[in-house]
Amino acid sequence: MTPIESPCILVCSIDMKTGYCFGCGRTRDEISDWLTMTPEQRRAVMATLPARLETVERKPRRETRRTRMARERGLS
């Protein structure tokens, strides 16, 4: 049996503005339907992903405790 190609990079979180996953660019429906899609349907979705990922607003990195403490002390 041939493995199913997937764009998943295990960064699974949906951008609420665009509806696309921050990691792969798929919608919730595409993610849930991925295993039942035909190879042609998956390839069609994958062709759209680079353009979609350009529209996703990246989440800001979480501030670490060390960074916050340094900022509060005026060290950064």
Report a brief summary of the structure:
The protein has 76 residues and is an all-alpha fold. The protein contains 3 helices and no strands.
What does this structure look like?
This protein has one domain. The protein has helices at 28-33, 39-55, 65-72. It has 76 residues and is an all-alpha fold. The mean pLDDT is 86.
**Termini, distance in Å?**
54 Å
Count of all domains: 1
Strand percentage lies at under 5%
Structural class: mainly alpha
Any idea what the radius of gyration is?
17 Å
Share of helical residues = 40-55%
Would you identify the regions where 5 or more consecutive residues have pLDDT less than 50? none
Order of helices and strands: HHH
The pLDDT mean sits at: 86
Total DSSP E strands = 0
Can you summarize the main beta sheet?
Answer: none
Oligomer: single chain
Q: How many helical elements?
A: 3
Quick one: overall form?
elongated
Pfam family, one: DUF1289
Protein name: DUF1289 domain-containing protein
Region (Disordered): 56-76
InterPro entries: DUF1289
Keywords:
76 residues; mainly alpha; 3 helices; DUF1289 domain-containing protein; DUF1289
Task: Set down the secondary structure blueprint.
Elements: H1 28-33, H2 39-55, H3 65-72
